[in-house]
Amino acid sequence: MPPVSQAVLLSWSVPPAATLALVLTALVYLRGWVLMRHAGVPFVPLWRAVSFLLGLLSLWIALASPLDTFSGFVLTAHMLQHMMLMMLAPPLLLLGAPVVPLVRGLPVFAAREFAGPFLNWRVAKRVGSALTHPIVALLLMGGAMFAWHTPRLYELALASSSWHQFEHACFFLASLVFWWPVIQPWPSRTRWPRWAVVPYLLVADLENTALAAILVFSDRLLYPSYDAVPRLFGFSALHDQAAAGAIMWVMGSLAFVVPAIGIAIQCLQSNRGHAEIVADRRQGPSLDGLLALSQRLAFPARFLRDRLSGRRIEAISFLLLFAVTGLYLAHLASSSSDDDNQVLRLSQQSGPFAVSVFAPAGELEAGPSDFSVLIQNRNSQDVLQDAIVALRAEQAGNSRRTQWVRTRTEDSENKLLQSASLDLPHNGDWLLDIAVARGGEQADFSLPLHVVKPATGMSFPWSYGVLLAFSAILLFAYLRRHLSGTLPVPHPAAKTAPQGGTANLL
């Protein structure tokens, strides 16, 4: 395998906060699935658990693989990432019937005090019912696709790591809502006849085809950022755009048309099979029944909790677990580095080399700053991984200068880039010197920099703000239920497992 291809395959940008969140989700689901299997619940077989885990894996690959690393360089990589976020991960997750296993997998205190009451809250039911209505879901899916592929919003996502993550969240959540009426995960109920899903999917395919055709047949570049960055794989930005549109066209059509054909065949064969499926869904136990049924299992931990003021221990255990996990996730989200935060600062040619220098977006603050350098052959545009690159910064009009620092590929998520950190201790105008050598050839480049004073005052990372807000919501919900005297009353279904009726959880 060529060295460049090896470097591409090694360019993983693993997001620590998202990775930990996905691992915790998998553990909660598996715990709930095991408890349901022990309780004899037959509605979540093994293949559903495998489907859910594959959905989490595909979501992680979309966020951590080279597709994310090169999404700012190659539109086709960005499009493949979007297809995984919209056409692969959501249906796999919903095939795992995730609602009840996730609730059962939570700590008992969290399931009883928060998850269960929230799912049975009238407002939550109405909002969920409105969002998963097929017409609303279709409009949300189409709106998210067309809005984020407009040049202005797409360029915004390319220029900012935060907006890029928000774009991915919009795609993923809109797709979950869209695929809900198609999969109709247990124990939810269908809103329309099963045959209505066929035109539902075909209309979505028309939306996808229209957007893909714009990318394929456009005679101008829709996203100028891809023309500004160096071309890594030998084809132009316009050809890259057409290839991305073709990927959207083919993969999207397969994702919509294949399920539509399968559902149409089922509906044409007979109505009996559909009636049996609906009957199975209606005979599924409610959420309250599942909680009561699984709690009958004699576990040693429950035996000890019952004799040691169980509810108090459950509350303290949940509080400690929530605080530790939440603070660690907030720390990972606020401290993780991302190459998406770097923008192209210099693109020059000298001697046999073409150099591109990337640095943090916006004004550089005094202190350490990361720089990444891409070295290419000036004529062939081949990436020169064996080139030796050194950086040095010198303050204009002053004798202050830093030591030469050798760049390394190990310090960059993108293994085609060489990165190093330089300390710019004072504000003012600086000059970044880049020395490149390969064999007997060498060249020098320079990049003017303007460094400003660090922002005064204490900065509060957004992740800790989200944690505080979520904690306040949970505390408010808990106090409201307990201080208002509206404690949950055991449902009649808790005495015996129900034989009919399904909780409309969403």
Based on Cα principal axes, name the global outline: globular
Order of adjacent strands in the largest pleated sheet: 3-9-8-5-6
Order of helices and strands: HHHHHHHHHHHHHHHHHHEEEEEEEEEH
Q: So how many helices?
A: 19
What can you tell me about this protein's structure?
This protein is α+β, with helices and mostly antiparallel strands and 506 residues long. It folds into two domains: 11-297, no CATH class; 339-452, Immunoglobulin-like, CATH 2.60.40. Helix content is 56%, strand content 14%. The chain is built from 19 helices and nine strands. Strands 3-9-8-5-6 form a five-stranded mixed β-sheet, with no helix packed on it. Helix 2 (16-38) packs across helix 6, helix 5 crosses helix 11 and helix 9 packs antiparallel against helix 11. The longest helix has 33 residues, at 237-269. The protein is globular.
Write the layout of secondary structure elements.
Layout: H1 3-9, H2 16-38, H3 46-64, H4 66-69, H5 75-95, H6 99-105, H7 108-119, H8 122-131, H9 134-148, H10 151-159, H11 161-183, H12 197-217, H13 225-228, H14 237-269, H15 272-282, H16 287-295, H17 300-307, H18 310-335, E1 342-350, E2 353-360, E3 364-365, E4 367-377, E5 388-395, E6 405-406, E7 418-424, E8 428-438, E9 441-452, H19 462-483
Parallel strand pairs: 3-9
Antiparallel strand pairs: 1-2, 2-4, 4-7, 5-6, 5-8, 8-9
Helix pairs in contact: 2-3, 2-6, 2-18, 3-5, 5-11, 5-14, 9-11, 9-12, 10-11, 12-14, 17-18, 18-19
